[in-house]
Prominin
Amino acid sequence: MYRQIMRLFDKRSHFVITIVFSYILILNLTYCIEFTTTIDQEKYSCSNFIGNTFEDKALRSFYDILNDIIHQVSKPFPHQDLLNNDELDNIGDGIVHSIQYKSTKWLQYIQGWLIISFVFLFITIIFPLLWVFYRICSYCCKSKSESQEPFDYSCFRKYILNFILIIIVIIKLVICGSIFMSLIYAEYGGDKLPDRIGTCFNDLSLYKRNTDAAFRNLLIENFKELNASMVSSISRGGNDIIENVKKNTGNSVLDTIRNKTEIVKRLVKDFENLYNSTEEASKGVKRLKNEWEKFKNLSKKELVECIDKDQMPESGVCRMFKDHLETLPNPIEEIPKNIMLKDLINLLKDYEKVNLIEHLNRIEAPFNELEDKVQSILNTHKHIVFNKLKIAGDYLFTLSERITTQLRLLDFNKYSSKIIYHFGPESHYPTILKWIWIGGLIIGFICAINSLCYMLAILYGIFGKKTDFYETDCCSKSTGGKYMNCGIWTSIITMTILSIITVLLMITTTNTSNLVCLPYKNPFQRNDILSMLERIIQRTNHSGITNGEFAILREGRMPSDIIRACGRNETFYKMFGLDNTYHFLDLSSYRQEFVNVEKELEQYIHKMTGQYDFKEYIDDQFKTALSMIPNFNDINKWQESLNTVLLKESLEGMDLTTYIKDLNLFLKNNPIPSPNIDAIKSLMANLELLEKENALPLRNDINNIIKNMEKFSLDLSQLNINFQDIRSRLIMAQSTIVKGLRSEISSATKDIINKWKNDVEEYLSHIKKKMNEDVTTCKPIADITKGIFASVCNQIIDPLNGIWAAMMLYIFLSIVMIIIGSYAIKEYRSTSSYNNWRKNNRLFSPAYQSPIGNTFATDAFEIRNKDPNPYGVPADIFNNSSTIKPYGVYRS
C-alpha cells in the first residue's frame, strides 16, 4: 500500500508535491476608485472533513503520547546514506531499491524499533514455551502433590488476588475496546482516503483557476474600471474645474441662490396641492359626519322597533345594545382650520415673481462659456491621454496572458487518473482494505473472547458457590476455574501469533509516522526531512521539470524559507521572487506607462494658463432682483403652524374599526345569543359599510396630507437664509474672480489633475497590495496540505499506531494474567471437607456409579429409595436402624 501511494508521484511532480508538503505553518487602504475583487465561485473542500469528523478525545490523547514515544525512539532519517540522487529522482521505486541493496543501513536506521521488537518477540515466544514446560512438569508431579493437604488460602490473600484480577481484566477490556475503535477509525479513514486525496488535488486545480482569475481581474478588469473612471472624469473635467473655481472664489453662492429659488418654486406648487387637499379633506369630513348621523338615526330607529315589537330576550338585548351605543363618543372630529397660512403662500409667490432663474441664467453665461472653453482644451488633448492609457492596458494584458500561459502548464488533473488507477474500484486497494478489515476483526474478536473468559472466571470465582455434595458445576467456583484455564490457554496459543502481527504493524506505522506525520506537525524540529526536501528541490534544477518564466520557482527557495514565509502570510509571488520577472511590487517595468499618462495630464495645467476674458457679470437688474426678495424671518412661526399633531389626533378618531371591535366585544360578552337579531345585524353591516366606503378613504387622504406637510416643512427650513448677506458675498466673489481668474483656473486645474493622478496611483497601490496580500496567497495551499496530512496521518496512521500499542499492552497484561490466574485456579477449585473425605474413602464402593450423574437432586429421600447406596458409602450404614431418623408420615 505504501508503495502504491509513492508511485502516485512521478518524476515530474516532485517539485509541486514538495511545495505542498512544505506549507505547514500557514494558517484597508481606502481607494478613490472602488476596484472590484474576485469572489471564488467554488469553495475549497479538502479540509472540510476535519471539522465534520467526530474525534475521541481519550484516543487522541493516547495517539499523541504514542507520537511522542515514536519521536523519542526514532532516529533522524539518514537520506544521504540511504537514498542516492537517482533513487531520489524516482522516490517511490527508489525506496524499494534502497531497501533491497542497503538493508544493513536501513536496519541501523530502525535500530531502536528492532531492539523493542526483539525483546518483545523474545518474551512472547519464550514465555509460552516455559509455561507449557511448567504445566507438563506440574502434571507429572501431580500424584505426589495430591497426597499433600490442599493449600489453604487466607481470606486476605483471596481478596488481594481477586482485586488484582479485576483491575487487570478491566484494563484488558478497555484496551480491547480501544483496539476495536482504532480499527474502525483506520478502516473508515482508509475507505475515505481516495475521495479525500482526489478532493485535495481538485482543490489544487481550483487554486490554479482562482489564481488565474485573480490575475486577470487585477490586470484587466480593474484596469478597465480605471480607464472608465478616467474617461468619465476628463469628459466632465470642464465642469469640475469651473465648479472648483466658483467654490474657491466664493461664486458658488450663485448655485445656492439657484437652489433656493428651485425650492421656492417647488414650495409654491406643493402649497397649492396641500391647500386643495385640505379643502377636499374638510369636505370629506363633513360628508362622513352626515353619514354618521344618518347611521345613528337609522340604528336608533331599528333598535326601538326591536324593543317594541320583539319579545324577550331579543328586546332586552336590543335595549342593552341601544344603551351601550349611546355611551360611545362621537368618533368624527373636525380638521383643524388655518393649517396652511395664506400669508406664507403670498410671501412665496412674491419670491417667485422676482424670477431669479432668468437673471441667474444671464449672469452665469460667462461661467458656462468658460466651462466650454476649458472642456474644449481637455477634449483636444484627451486622445493623447487615452492612447497612453491604452498602451499601459495592452502591457498589462500581455502580462496577464503570460502568467495565464504559465499557470496552464501546472496540470493537476493528471493525478485524478492516477488516483483512480491505484485506489479506484478496479484496483487492488479495495480488496486489500477489505482483508485488512477482516483480519483486524479476527484479532479483535480473539482479544474480546479472551477477555470474556477472564471476566467470567472472575465473576464465577468471586460470586459462585462452593462445590456442593452433588458434584454439580452450576454457578460454582470450579466453573470460574475452568473459564480461567480456558483464558490462559487461549492467551498461550495466540500470544506468539499476535506478537508477530504487532511487531510487523509497529515497524511499518512508526516509520511512516516518523517520516511523514511528525515532520508535518513539527517541521523545524526535523532538519533531516527539511534537508531531504532541499535535495529534491535541488535535483529539479537538473531535471527540467519547470521551464519558462516559472523556472525561477526552482531557485533559492528551501522548504524552511517557504514555511517561514507562509507563517508571515507572504504570497508565493513574493516568496519565490517572481517580481524579478513581472515587477508588480517595484513597478519598474510598467509604471513608466502610467507615468506617461500622468505627464500628459500635467500638460493640461500649461494649456489652461492662457488669457481669459471675464468681465463683471453682476448687473443692476440682478442687484435689484436680489433686493426684491422678501425676508423669511417668520419661518419658525410658519413651521409651528404646520404642526401635524392635531391632524393625527383627528385621524385616530376617524378609525371606525375601533367602534366595530368594541361592539363585537360587547355582543360576545352578552350572555344571550344576539347574532340572529335583525336590527343588530343591520346595524353592524351598515357600520362596516360606512368604514369601508367613507372612513377608510378619508383616512388615507389625511395620511397623505400629513406626509406632504412634513416634507413641506422640511423644504421650508432650507429658506432660512439672509439674502441681503448673499448679495454682499456675491459682489466680493465677483471682484475676486475678475482679478485672479487665470491663477484660479490654474489652481483648480491642478487640483483636478492631481485627483486624476491619484486615481492612477491608487490603481498601482491596489496592484501592489493585492500581490502582497491576496493573489497567490498561502492559505488555500495550507488548507489543502492540512487536509492531505489529516486524511493520512490523523485518520489512518494514528489509529494504526493505537492498534499495535494496544495489542502490545494487551499481550503484556495477558502474561501477568496467566501468572496470577494460575494461583486463582487453585483457589477456585478448592473443595469442601466432605468431598475430601469422599476422595479418601472411595475403597468402600469402588464399583459405584451414581444413577443421576452430576445433576440436580431435588429430593434426596426419593433418590435414596431408588438407590440403596446413594452417597457411595458402605450399604450396611443404611441397614442399621439406629442411624435412621423418621422425617414424618407423609414421606413418599
Observations:
- The first helix runs from residue 2 to 7.
